[in-house]
């Protein structure tokens, strides 16, 4: 029996609506879940038009490099909004009547490769060998009711595409939610020769932490469960599963134990508490698949919050930003956007309100979000657990460093991080300092 491809009714109606508008040449991304037996397309979002110009392209039969870059950047930003288990599956195109088959295939191949490359840059994890190496392209013909679905092998882009049948489904039942709240404490040394300490240094340090995170053990609702067992076994329908990760040291292989000596100009500490979530379709999801999806969500949200803090600091750099600034990292706010109760998320800084979140959902997902759909409960509960002890501890560390330096340090601007509570949700404090010898 062959693999099935399912498109949710919400996505199908959305794509038909775009086709009815005769916006030929419109591109967008497809979101969903890939399993060994089935692939689920649960959401489609068109690419925002450049400069908000609400007009079809001048020549929808062509696509330039800048257009492909625009689509891939949109996919990168949307990927940040996805919980565990949900991926950017591929792209769609409302194919103009006169576009040749060869042109369409060329556009699809370029779009698929560009989107996957852009999204993969922000992953701290890799796909396993057991996971299907496919991405979807969906052609919507302007002059007929046909929608043709093809798959590309991302592990071998030269492999010919396969034409597939796609079935429609409500996809409103049997979505298992797996959740975890985890404390993060990561110390990252940054090379003294780094041109930009917000570039490769933190990313390299996070990858070392990510490797240990992916290997750590777990408890499911307080008990160990065999990886091959069903995650929801013995639970009521739609009951969220709570996972606790055990962060004991992971044994290292001989090749991981070699010492590297580098000039360390500063260090970055990532501390805080994050709430993570994964969605899995079907009532026979194995424990190992649920844990893998949840761990990936942990890695994704830590990376995204760090990146957003760094981006914000680089864009808003000023001479006195680091002297006394306590900068909270963005909070994660979930919003249920589908009848299936699957929620996407956004990240908002403390200065942003619900209107900012609604605007981003509209811009990136082409979705009119109602304030009542926003779920801030996890953020509020974690924040109320107490933030002052963490902040005080970071400040004491900074004082000790100043005293042991015998007055030999000068603190300037935002060059190097001596303490960062980037994660969110309990306390997010960012201290930026630079240490130079006099």
Account of the 3D structure:
The chain is an alpha/beta fold and 438 residues long. The chain has two domains: 4-169, Cytidine Deaminase, domain 2, CATH 3.40.140; 175-254 and 261-433, no CATH class. The chain is 30% helix and 28% strand. It has helices spanning 9-20, 65-79, 101-120, 200-215, 287-315, 321-324, 354-365, 377-384, 388-404; strands at 4-8, 27-34, 38-46, 87-95, 134-141, 147-153, 162-164, 167-169, 175-191, 217-220, 241-246, 264-281, 331-336, 343-348, 374-375, 416-424, 430-433. The chain is globular. It starts with a strand and ends in a 5-residue tail after the last strand. The model is unreliable at 318-326 and 386-438 (pLDDT under 50).
In short:
The chain is an alpha/beta fold and 438 residues long. It has nine helices and 17 strands.
